[in-house]
Amino acid sequence: MKNYDLVVVGGGPAGMAAAVAAFDAGVKNILIIERDTKLGGVLNQCVHNGFGLTRFKENLAGPEYAEKFSDEVEKRDIDVMLSTMVLEVGADKTVTAMNSEYGVFTLKPMAIILAMGCRERSKGALNIAGARSAGIYSAGTAQRYVNIEGYLPGKNVVILGSGDIGLIMARRMTLEGAKVHAVCEIMPFSSGLKRNIVQCLDDFGIPLYLNHTIVDIQGKERVTGVTIAEVNPVDKKPIKGTEIHFDCDTVLFSVGLIPENELTKNAGIPMSPRTKGAIVNQYRETDVEGIFACGNVLHVHDLVDFASEEAEIAGRSAYEYISGKLNKEKTVNLINGANIGYVLPQKITVPSGDVKVFFRVTNVFKNVTFKVKDGDEVVISKKKLTVAPGEMETIVLKSDLLSANKSGNITIELEAQND
Amino acid sequence: MTEKLLTCVECPRGCQITVTLDDGKVVSVVGNFCPRGKVYAENECVNPKRVVTSTMNSDIGVLVPVRTDKPVLKANIFDVMKKINATTCKTPIKLGDVIIANIDGDANLIASKTVK
Amino acid sequence: MYDILVIGGGVVGGMILRELSRFNAKICLLEKESDVAMGASRANSGISHAGFDAKEGSLKAKFNVLGASMMPKVTEELGVKYKNNGSIVVGFNDEDMETLQGLYERGLKNGVKGLKIIDQQELRTLEPNISDDAVGALFATTAGIVCPYELAIASIGNAMDNGAELKLNFEVDKIETGEYFTVTSKDGQVVKAKYIVNSAGIYSDKIAGLIGDNSFKIGARKGEYILLDKESGNFVNHTLFFCPTKKGKGILVSQTVDNNIILGPTATEQDDKDDVTTTADGLNDVIASANKLCKKVPVFNSITSFAGLRAYSDRHDFIIEKSALNDKFYNVAGIESPGLTSAPAIGDFIANEVAKDLNLNKKDNFNPTRKADYFFKNLTNEEKNAVIKKIPEYGKIVCRCESITLGEILRAIRENPKATTVDGIKRRTRAGMGRCQGGFCQPVIVSVLAKELGIPYEQVTKSGKGSEINVGRTK
Fold this sequence. Notes:
heterotrimer, A: FAD/NAD(P)-binding domain, FAD/NAD(P)-binding domain, 3 domains, 8 helices, about 35% strand, globular, B: 3-stranded antiparallel β-sheet
């Protein structure tokens, strides 16, 4: 087997963007390993539009966005191995993979980029009472059945969780002839994008039950109905007497995405319990030198453009690493302060250029002020009208601000004004 | 004068737009981040439109992802779906190829993927 | 005409069939479901008990101790995962410790080896996550864990490889007695046999009733479980029990052979013998009890919850006997815990009894092994490459959570007893049993099943008729 300078694990949008950026920066021997039969990852089944507005200034469907990147990969001398599963990544920068053609084989590149994406949280994680009959799917699985296989998993649907995939599938199944009776969300707000509430639910008169969850699923062979109930907003326990029953044959779960980090964890790469991805610096380099991570395996993005952007950072940085140019003199830790769920990167090595920091808030707030602190000193203050956990926030930390850092820490916090 | 609150669906930013109407006519649009928001808000009050995305059968059995290249009248979404479902597209087909011209008004249905 | 019919394809019926297949006889297994191992064998704790629980002199005690000693060899022959992890019954006060002393003594009388009373310090060394309130324990080194449906499937597969037949979707509706038995299914199929072994689990009283034998009643006891991700697989090392009470062994916390952690079961007696739904109360009970046994049980790492029904008889011991009404009709009923452990011994006992009655000879060419390239992921890289070279499908991973290959899935469909449903594949290969619960691999498995079975995609079921995964084409 050929020797590669860089192996990219995963050929979804992040993996492709990382490989292209690394190639353009100067890495010449690149291999993308993809488990599916084609490049593109989950975008292949996301036939809805809304992709690429920042990058391409166009409102693209998922497969279009994927094709734009796979075209770029094809144009370059980047090797792609499809239908190949990476079994193990070693901290010594080894990649062990398997396919039908070569069997099990091990590569030892100079750098590795992890771009395995994420998976859906399954119903099993919720311990919801009731039947385990046919008709219970995660929204992404239903999406694959409808958009790739061409089959309808059910005709009368109730959806738990108002994540974007759930909302998108509410519309998609409606368009294909199913009746979506309800979307219920245990939180007091939707975790999906506002536009999806409008164009996927409101447009079709699908009710959204906030502060509700499923308390029972009925049916022996196939689902025959579900019961939902309102929850106490504090302890999330169902409130007796608020039950609503729906006759349905299908229940979809859209209850969150989790970065798929088995390879990362097995490699012994330190993880963040907040992002459920690796801890990285601004180069998207993990605590193991030369192993980078980007896209949804690092933290779940709501926009593919952000994932691509992050992947390009990882790609370019992999080149810098391979050519020995990553200069790290001092480390500044980024800390999520009050009302902030996570920040990414979690550390910045100085000297650096300007660093764009991504973060999520913990709740829905109005009239907020974001504060960036060096120790106790506020160095940036930024106001915003409304924020929600479903929407990623960004803030740019200037190079001089970073090199002037005194405390060794930068904290980002949110101050919410009382209404 | 009446005010209408809208969430723009043009992009994931989801701007909260306030439209002021006078006798059904748009007087002002506030809250949009970009010009597309203004157009959206104006349309939404008079003639709501949406891009339709779906899949279509093809002569080789695989589904081809498709979308309209412009928003179509919201009221006509299911008619557009009917036309999509009644059609089988020929392969090979290239991304952006028009499969059904003028599927609704001046909107065409295009392939959102190359299928060889 | 069959020599022997076995009714009920759980682990007990399976082990009986397997032991019968050692003899020159025409044998057949009747199962009402779309697959074998669909009753109590589908959802139980998977423990090979040491044998100190059952009262000395009981059938439970006899078959438990015998079965436990057979388990390592049987599982090795059948290529079924078994781990001798040892079990620990935890005491929380002086009264418990007295009970444990009693169990220890009973164990000695039952012939159980490797029993030991341990103190708090030793307990904490063995199980760092044990509750701070635990004061001591009974440690049984001979106990183990085994996957119940795997053992059932493998024993039936092995029997079939040795000539036994299997009829699925055969719900016995009528049994006519006479010179021989005439057995009619609900949908009108008829088979005849000289001898019947009734191992129909929670329905064994109904089956016995078909020949007029109403000498026992079988009740259904629901047990709810929660399964934790293998990421938490080392939360405990042994099988941890509370001190047993009249209601049974209570909720346990154990490793499984597949490196998950299992919590459960509850024990709720119910009239409906088909209701395997989980309940909010039941699941809460499981969590609360597990948290009494251990500190900070990682319930957040739960990947699924499920319920199964265990049969219990009104005689409070196993019923393993000829029917008083017909000496060619064996009842093997009320096989509650330690039924799984006892199954190999019960199989051996019944097969030899029946063989004596029918004067059967042993086959010269009985093959006790079920060829094991099963746990593909456990092979060395060299071994994997040798398999992939021969069968390239083994190089293609379908279930990423459990690393299950297309080769293994095809094998599950082609090999005895053949999988015909998505759940059937899951039980044979573990595809879909991991943390994503089939989210990624199910559509692929459906298409492999459709192709292999030669049926339309939308006719593929989760678990038999009525459980179709899709309702039709979108367009």
